[in-house]
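Dig into what follows:

_____
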Amino acid sequence: MAFVKVCALSELEDDTPKRVELDGTPVSIVRTEGEVFAINDVCSHANVSLSEGEVEDCMIECWLHGSSFDLRTGKPSGLPATRPVPVYPVKIQGDDVLVSVTQET
């Protein structure tokens, strides 16, 4: 897996998503509950940016219709979304946040 620096850890505010793009993939970076998560930034139900939504209890809520996705697994917690969104591995090296959106083949 190729990890790429997306931002500095010090740039992330708790429970405030940060949108980045990696290899053409929109990703929402979220610092919450002492951890950093990377989740695909497109809601599987409405095709809108998740990084514009609220974060609470390790979930990110889509601002348009209220679907929430688990930051650890990408699984929706209820309707209207029924499909999960991809999550990506995160590494912290010093103050650097690194994410991999590539899959091993």
